[in-house]
Write a structure and sequence with these properties.
The chain is built from 10 helices and no strands. By secondary structure, it is mainly α. The chain is elongated and about 45 Å long.
């Protein structure tokens, strides 16, 4: 995405899910890669982004499920997990686990703002299995605990 002028901060701001898929499905990213702006992504004329498109769709459709994993996303692409992680990061400018966490945190922020669901229920709803890990990830991404975020943003 950085190759087409989209930066991580823009992905975090509202359109994380749609922006990433729009670029992949509309072929904007493909055209950019064919022009040589995605170094190392073409192997024998094949663009791995086509392979990871299904994996991105899997992550987008299943990020709220606890069983969603990067290793399963890699297997959908028929790539080794190591190769998948490398290709994913080259294309989207972030590692797949960070992308998965960002999807989950964005959904949690939405739930914290717009509902009174307990934090532990939100943890389950967004695919985390450990409340402490979720709170640590949430604070790292937002600078606030989930409770502080809710208090500052509740409508």
């Amino acid at each position: 995405l950085a190759a087409v002028g989209v930066h991580e901060g823009q992905l975090l701001a509202g359109g994380l899910v749609q922006q990433g898929m729009d670029l992949v499905t509309q072929g904007q990213l493909a055209g950019d890669l064919r022009r040589g702006n995605g170094r190392g992504l073409s192997h024998n004329g094949f663009l791995p982004w086509k392979k990871i498109k299904n994996s991105i769709e899997y992550l987008l459709e299943n990020y709220t499920e606890k069983g969603t994993s990067i290793s399963h996303a890699a297997s959908i692409s028929n790539l080794s997990e190591v190769h998948f992680r490398r290709v994913f990061k080259e294309i989207l400018s972030i590692p797949p686990i960070k992308y998965l966490n960002m999807l989950r945190i964005e959904k949690a922020k939405e739930l914290l703002k717009n509902t009174s669901i307990s934090v532990s229920d939100i943890v389950d709803a967004v695919g985390y299995s450990n409340v402490n890990y979720f709170c640590k990830r949430f604070k790292k991404e937002t600078g606030l605990t989930p409770s502080q975020y809710r208090k500052n943003n509740f409508q």
